[in-house]
Design goal:
Blueprint lengths: L3 E7 L13 E6 L2 E5 L5 H8 L8 E3 L5 H4 L2 H10 L6 E4 L5 H8 L10 E3 L6 E5 L4 E6 L7 E6 L3 E4 L1 H6 L5 H9 L1 E2 L2 E2 H4 E4 L3 E5 L6 H7 L4 E5 L7 H7 L4 H11 L3 E5 L9 H9 L5 E4 L5 E3 L5
Parallel strand pairs: 3-4, 4-5, 5-6, 14-15, 15-16, 16-17
Antiparallel strand pairs: 1-2, 1-18, 2-3, 7-8, 8-9, 9-14, 10-13, 11-12
Helix pairs in contact: 3-4, 10-11
Amino acid sequence: MSVRELVVLGTASQVPTRHRNHNGYLLRWDSEGILFDPGEGTQRQMLRAGVAAHDLNRICVTHFHGDHSLGLAGVIQRINLDRVPHEVTAHYPKSGQRFFDRLRYATAYRETVRLTEAPVDADGVIARTGGYTLEARRLSHPVESYGYLLTEPDGRRMLPDRLAAHGLKGPDVGRLQREGSLNGVSLDDVSEVRRGQRFAFVMDTRLCDGVHALADGVDMLVIESTFLDEDEQLAEEHGHLTAGQAARVARDAGVRHLVLTHFSQRYSEPEEFERQARAAGYEGELTVAHDLLRVPVPKRR
């Protein structure tokens, strides 16, 4: 049975707190696991959340600030220690190659796993698999930063009433799906397009074209909301978003499930992030993330 869910490993921004670990997010997508922004302490959070090194197929780093990348060293070494039997691919800004190299080889260990480096240096598709396409978009932050968009290919939904009207059932339905037409009946006659699911991951950034492009029509948007709206000037100065800004992006983009995260240590009441997001007009499903939370990706439309 396929599982599509977000496992939140950490939700703090620059400074962790007693209740918030540095960033870390695992997207379970059927048989694959994509780890986003492994900050310091990610390996231990994986243990607490029941996430194994064998679950990881891909690592995506938005940028090389410590709260988004210092956990790379431990995660990479754990992948090798556990002798993960499959290839693991790492995506990160190409301009930060020296940081990736330092983290990958921070200490001595035995390499046993094929870790493929796939740095990002422009907007566009960075990976294609049978189950999804992965894209990167440039964001606006003091250091080069990219957000990520995962898109499932569109499929078809068979319509029982139309199948019955054409007298199609049993093996004939499978044959029609494989061949596209059968006895004068086309696939379009008895089915409709089933839109593929979409997931977007947006971390440290000001409002910019990349944010809107990533959020457009996604089923789940995981997005930073470092500041509350009264500190919007601070957010702009440091290259971040407020709860209201993130919510307006989601509202205008038609996002189905908004997940707010990456909170400044100055705030202790997460309810205020939810209040400001609702005040900004977002009416979809809303989650203010906390460590070790599991959030299912919305079911297909």
